[in-house]
Specification:
The complex is a heterodimer of chains A (228) and B (245). With 228 residues, chain A is mainly alpha-helical. Chain A is built from 9 helices and no strands. Chain B starts with 10 loop residues before the first helix and ends with a helix. Chain B is 75% helix and 0% strand. Classes of the chains: A mainly alpha (228), B mainly alpha (245).
Chain lengths: 228, 245
């Protein structure tokens, strides 16, 4: 067996998970449809005429919906591999488990996070957000949704194969995601208030870097605990 | 004479020790609570700016400090259990969690009652309030994760990892009042600079110790139950007088 370098390994895992996701497109689409529906429900609930109110709550609504949508898809991150025994093989592999986990996180984000980022401007238009705020919303989501996938991976690994894992994973992960939510929707609110939004995006970048460094390793440990 | 430092790290010996110590801590805590509450609610002078409502701090400050400290202690025990695979550490972490959750709930609750007359609102989304609320959720997550895993060893280790990950929140709570310029004021109680009336300071100290001893007593009693439950199939538990009856 020829040795793979770590980047090659990462690409391999990402490609494998993407192929698997494409074979079951319905799962991916459900998350996206959920996201669109939740966001669209707010104008109907709040009242369609309340345009100024809708303007103000739009970033928060989009962020909360993105958070819930990413919770929804967390169950799939490891469970299929766990059920068919692939995860055991992954744990036994001589390569770094953290890198393999990072690959799975990246694939999860590309399947469930990236579509949300791309859909966000369309939903922002429903709320009547101006173009500059739409841009910042997209940028903030682009930086923030990977963090949601990363923190979510820890929760998904800890609750692997448990009864009622879906509810439990939300209870574990949502509190840790609050900073992302605060800075993410805060950035858009800053633009709306006519102030600079750089600080919020920089904090999101910091969260992304911190999460990227620590969570693959923590997730790997959690997987070992769950699988022993 | 060689001292066996690890004597009380075995559940069987610690069970007896905790049983002996817990009533003392509980009694001491009850006495200190009475003294502290008298000092705080009756003897201490009324605050110039805040009036009588400030007296809530005699509950609020000790419980909020302890809610953070107990979390760190819990995460520390959890880490010990995870690294050295000691049985008792994981049991201690599990025994600390409900007390910590209770303290963080009391801290939030009393803070809300204090906020109503002083800030004019029960709740603001201030950095410290939010992070304390997250701490409460983290305690609940720890308890829920532990409860939903049937295998106790896996439950210990999974919950331990969660506790360690969650401990990043504690410094955020502590420094939130310095980092963000928000409504919650910086500590009134500092060991070095005695800016407040000595009676107030002493009352706070007494209440602090009362809460500490309460937490210790409750944790010891709870850890005794956990030890009995986990070790129910061992010989020493069967030979206990309370288990035989």
């Amino acid at each position: 067996m020829n040795a793979l370098s770590l980047p090659e390994l990462l690409v391999l895992v990402v490609r494998r998970d993407l192929v698997l996701a494409m074979r079951r497109r319905a799962d991916v689409l459900t998350t996206l449809v959920f996201f669109v529906m939740v966001v669209s429900l707010f104008p109907l609930g709040v009242g369609k005429g309340e345009l100024t109110l809708l303007h103000r709550i739009a970033p928060g609504v989009v962020w909360v919906a993105a958070l819930l949508a990413s919770m929804l898809s967390l169950g799939r991150m490891f469970s299929a591999d766990y059920l068919d025994g692939t995860l055991e093989q992954i744990l036994l592999a001589p390569q770094s488990l953290s890198v393999l986990v990072l690959g799975k996180i990246v694939a999860h984000w590309m399947v469930s996070g990236l579509p949300l980022v791309l859909m966000a401007p369309v939903l922002g238009l429903q709320f009547g957000l101006p173009a500059d705020q739409l841009g910042v919303l997209m940028l903030a989501l682009l930086l923030g949704t990977p963090v949601l996938s990363m923190i979510g991976a820890v929760g998904a690994a800890l609750t692997l194969g448990l009864r009622g894992g879906g509810v439990l994973v939300s209870l574990l992960v949502l509190p840790l995601c609050i900073p992302v939510l605060v800075f993410g929707s805060g950035a858009v609110a800053q633009v709306a208030g006519g102030v600079t939004y750089a600080a919020h995006l920089e904090l999101l970048c910091a969260l992304l870097v911190a999460a990227a460094v620590s969570t693959p390793w923590v997730t790997a440990q959690a997987l070992r605990i769950s699988m022993e | 004479m060689a001292i066996n430092w690890f004597k009380y790290s075995a559940p069987s010996t610690f069970y007896a020790l905790a049983g002996k110590l817990a009533p003392w801590f509980a009694g001491l805590s009850a006495i200190l609570f009475m003294i502290g509450l008298y000092m705080g609610l009756v003897a201490a002078p009324t605050d110039v700016q805040q009036g009588e409502a400030y007296r809530i701090i005699y509950i609020h400050v000790p419980t909020s400090i302890l809610s953070m400290f107990i979390y760190l202690l819990m995460a520390g025990y959890a880490a010990l259990g995870l690294i050295f695979n000691t049985r008792l550490s994981a049991m201690m972490a599990g025994a600390l969690a409900p007390t910590g959750a209770l303290f963080s709930l009391i801290a939030l609750w009393t803070g809300a009652f204090w906020g109503r007359p002083e800030w004019g609102t029960y709740w603001v989304w201030d950095a410290r309030l939010t992070s304390e609320l997250i701490l409460f959720f983290l305690y609940l997550g720890f308890i829920a994760l532990h409860a939903s895993i049937d295998d106790p060893r896996r439950a210990d280790r999974a919950a331990a990892l969660l506790a360690i990950v969650g401990s990043v929140n504690v410094p955020i709570i502590y420094f939130s009042v310095y980092w963000w310029n928000t409504l919650h004021q910086i500590p009134t109680f500092q060991v070095s600079g005695a800016k407040i009336d000595p009676t107030m300071e002493h009352a706070l100290l007494v209440m602090m110790f009362a809460c500490w001893f309460y937490a210790i007593a409750m944790t010891f009693w709870r850890v005794r139950s956990i030890i009995l439950e986990r070790e129910r199939n061992t010989q020493w538990v069967r030979e206990l007088p309370e288990a035989r009856s």
